[in-house]
Specification:
The protein has a domain at 71-216: 3-Layer(aba) Sandwich (Glutaredoxin). It is globular and about 40 Å long. The longest helix has 20 residues, at 2-21. It is of the alpha/beta class and 221 residues long. The strands form two sheets. A five-stranded mixed sheet has the order 5-4-3-6-7. The protein has a two-stranded antiparallel ribbon with strand order 1-2. The protein has helices spanning 2-21, 37-42, 95-106, 129-140, 159-164, 167-170, 205-216; strands spanning 62-64, 70-72, 80-86, 111-117, 145-146, 183-186, 192-196.
Length: 221
């Protein structure tokens, strides 16, 4: 009898302690913080293509040169880059000569000119990459970097130009490409620092001044 009484007392004490503790507290759900754009780019799987949405700089892209070889634009970091969409049968095609002059004048100081043929305007770049390269070298003695033909506007717009023309990604330098020979100047830190519209010649005073300033400005960390 004594043993039975002890068991009952112990059971009563256990029930009373549980009642004093109250109901169990629910476990708060854990939520993952939303990824920021920079974090999303950093977490992009290895080998995933860079897009306008994931890029932080025009120099994040990989493109094809005029021979069809892959060229990571990251190789130009630390230099000043002038990106131009070009065409062989345009009234502005003689700007090739002025671009070559800029190349000869500033290449040793770190200017790199990147020409992207495009057939978006008036069908003025209808040739193959081989024909474009031959035209540029034979007619204008071009020695700066030529790339494979791309689209700079429209539904098939290349991701590089989707970035360059995006106001969200490229700020006040964004906006549609209006014609051949639009020029984007990129500083040593990979940021766009100026944009010049087609009729502004490559050797215009404001273009040269912007190039000089970019060459004199060290890359920011």
């Amino acid at each position: 009898m004594t043993r039975l009484m002890l068991l009952l007392v112990a059971a009563f004490a256990s029930v009373r302690a549980a009642a004093q503790q109250g109901p169990p507290q629910p476990t708060a759900p854990t939520s993952q913080p939303a990824s920021r754009p920079a974090e999303a780019a950093a977490n992009r799987p290895a080998g995933a293509p860079v897009t306008a949405a994931t890029a932080a700089s025009p120099l994040d892209f990989t493109v094809l040169d005029i021979e069809g070889r892959e060229v990571p634009l990251a190789r130009y970091r630390g230099q000043v880059v002038l990106i131009v969409n070009v065409a062989s049968q345009c009234g502005l095609t003689p700007q090739y000569e002025q671009l070559q002059t800029l190349h000869e004048r500033y290449a040793e100081r770190g200017l790199r000119i990147l020409a992207f043929p495009a057939n978006n305007f008036g069908g003025q770049e209808p040739g193959t990459n081989a024909e474009i390269r031959r035209f540029c070298t034979d007619r204008y003695r071009v020695r700066f970097d030529l790339f494979s033909k791309i689209s700079v506007r429209g539904r098939d717009q290349h991701e590089l130009y989707r970035f360059l023309t995006s106001p969200e990604k490229n700020g006040r330098f964004g906006g549609d490409i209006q014609w051949n020979f639009t020029k984007f100047l990129i500083g040593r830190d990979g940021r766009v620092v100026a944009r010049f519209e087609p009729r502004t010649k490559p050797d215009a005073a404001d273009v040269v001044a912007a190039i000089e300033q970019a060459l004199a400005t060290p890359a920011r960390p």
